[in-house]
Amino acid sequence: MTLRIEIDDLAKHFGAIKAVDGVSFSVSKGEVLGFLGPNGAGKSTTMKMITGFLTPTHGTVRVCGYDVLQDPISVKAHLGYLPEGAPAYADMTPDGFLKFIAEIRGLSGADRKRAVASAAERARITTVMHQPIETLSKGYKRRVGLAQAILHNPPVLILDEPTDGLDPNQKHEVRTLINEMAEDKAIIISTHILEEVHALCNRNVVIANGKVRFDGTPHELEAKSRYYNAVCVNVANIEQQAFETFLTSLDFVSDVEALDAQAGFRVYPKQGAQITAELSEKIRANGWDIDALHAEHGRLDEVFRSITMPNTESSN
Ligand SMILES: Nc1ncnc2c1ncn2[C@@H]1O[C@H](COP(=O)(O)OP(=O)(O)OP(=O)(O)O)[C@@H](O)[C@H]1O
């Protein structure tokens, strides 16, 4: 594992507001880290400190081994940043804008031409290169922002809400592009779109009120749901009360909940264990016919709420 981003005890206070309050985590090559949190959690402020746009109140950030305060130029050379809303110079064309950014990045001549062509190709904006940015759709504007971020082929990408406000097709295209780049980069993506946990990320950090509340894989996040591995089950021709009593008596079951309209029961396992096989075996051993039986995944919206609601204990 090659560590690319190391964040230690990072904080930013705006007067009495502790926007970021002692955040620590690291990101390795090949990781796409979904940085999740409700509005005002401190995501953008953290990203601005990683990229050197804001000075921390305390704490350290290292990008590819370079300290953001000691060596800001090396840090900027090793990362690409897509700020929230992907601002760009509206009256420029993508071609002019990318050439301008390439120049700032110190590229000239054939190198500049090659970098612009390659970023435009990867971001799929080759057909709009000579159209003013202000006349482009939101999706294309975002892709121009992405092309700007990947122009110098940096090993680290920091993307602030890259799919926010895009339609489903545009979201899909931007996610595909990020997935294509994931293998050889370390990427942080801030989002409050929970479907991106699975569509994009192989790791998640959840923050609320400036503090890290969870750090783990999407699977571990989902496993925090009370519905994780719960089994919905219905049996034909049986008195519901008797069936509920039977389910409650099983030693691997922690709770049983009646579903609407005689649809059977939701059975909660002890310690989130997988119980589908054991449960169906026990039911069949009683000579009953199973009408329906399926295990549930965790519900991310419920997990997100329980982790990020104010005054909730840390769930990490
Ligand atoms: N320049 C500033 N001055 C004062 N307070 C600020 C400043 N920038 C951010 N904040 C406050 O810091 C907190 C964290 O803001 P931040 O923008 O980092 O959150 P976020 O998680 O990115 O939210 P969102 O999802 O809405 O973009 C908020 O309470 C915000 O109002």
From TrEMBL:
CDD domains per the UniProt record, alphabetical: ABC_DR_subfamily_A
Residue ranges of every copy of the ABC transporter domain listed in the record: 5-234
Entry-linked PROSITE patterns: ABC_TRANSPORTER_2
Molecular function via GO: ATP binding; ATP hydrolysis activity
InterPro entries cross-referenced by the UniProt entry: AAA+_ATPase, ABC_transporter-like_ATP-bd, P-loop_NTPase
The entry's keywords: ATP-binding, Nucleotide-binding, Transport
PANTHER family, sorted: ABC TRANSPORTER, ATP-BINDING PROTEIN (PTHR43335:SF4)
Family to which this protein belongs: Belongs to the ABC transporter superfamily.
Protein name: ABC transporter, ATP-binding protein
